[in-house]
Specification:
Layout: H1 18-21, E1 31-32, E2 41-45, E3 54-59, E4 70-74, H2 85-91, E5 96-100, H3 110-119, E6 126-127, H4 142-163, E7 169-174, H5 176-190, H6 194-199, E8 200-206, H7 217-236, H8 245-268, H9 274-278, H10 285-288, H11 294-302, H12 312-328, E9 336-341, H13 349-359, E10 367-371, H14 384-412
Parallel strand pairs: 4-5, 4-7, 7-8, 8-9, 9-10
Antiparallel strand pairs: 1-6, 2-3, 3-5
Length: about 425
Amino acid sequence: MTTPYCKFKIADFKFILPLLILLSGCMHQQYVSEPYPRWGEEYSIPRSGDNPPLILRVLSPLETTSPVACILLVHGMNEYIGRYGDVARHFSNQFLVAGFDYYAHGLSNPVLQQAEKALNPGVDRQDVSQAYLAQVPLYDLELMRRDLDYALKKTIQICDAQVGSKKPVFLISHSLGSLITASYLLQMQDKEEESLIRRVQGVILQAPGFAVSEPPGWRGWLAGPLIKLSFHAETHFLNPQNDSLPLLVFNQMLSLVTVPVLDGLFEVFSWPGLRYFFTPTTPEWVVDYLTDSEKERSRLQTDGWIIRRSLLRYIKGIESEIVQFRRHMDDFATPYYLIYSAHDPITAAWGSEDFVNATLNNHQDNAYLALPELRYHQHLFLTKPRRNAIIKNIEQWLDRRLAAMKHAETEMQ
């Protein structure tokens, strides 16, 4: 049995000032009772230092079918790639599909990894309440970007070996995974990783984490001003925003006071002992905004492989990463197809809209799908009519990219 939710509703959001976090501490227990849902062939990727190997899962089309390209799946915050088995099997009809659990998630989380091993002999359940502690080193997203780098390079290696030629590679990412993916590709541009960038011919960004959360209802009324103050202070911290001189001075003074205080408090509340009480638990309202499928919601409620707590240091690091990415996103050069729901409170639509406005003209194949009537965050886990329509849109964009590349090659010849 899983006990995923805290009974104190005042902390029902992720990006929150410590004043409210003081009211959100609660007892939390979580268990896994089912084996990790494996799919595909497993490849072990050595990591640096004492870190355990990274596991890459790979599904290929039937032997009679040659993949038209290769896809790497990148999951979202606190979830894991095992739940993407149906998605991987669908795309593997045409593509070689790979996926991995990035740092502190799924089988890349030492607590969850040990629990999975202990379940094999038939033990009823394993306590994984402390799985969130793997987030302790996450002051930013660098460790997860590093895992993406490992996984992408291994995917390209396997793709070339199995296909026998250098097929294009695409990434399909979700939520925080989209922020990790987009910031990684932007860094690769800056580092002039030409060979790697040339192989990545496009990215699908689903509900990308390019903005902070906007809790719905009364929670938003209570939390909204505080979240916006924190984000505003972080955005303007020692970084002018083309403001008039009086506003510039005000923002700089506000940021100089607010940001160090918030950073210090988030860090203190992440220390051993204190973090037991001040680490917020995933609020109950989140599930209602993930999917329209009652079956999937029930599964999410009891899925012990999903991490239910987020260390404040980790949350603050994500906010800082969003701010940093937004400062440089105008230069994003990889062709993309972005999908977002207009009423998604988990990754607010304005983050996607800002990104599209800044980058749509950077490549002729850039495109987006705005879903004005939807509030749901996980598009690949919706009920079939909507899910199938979205998958079809993704496949059509991939086909257009492949056709454009083939046309370009013909023109060069």
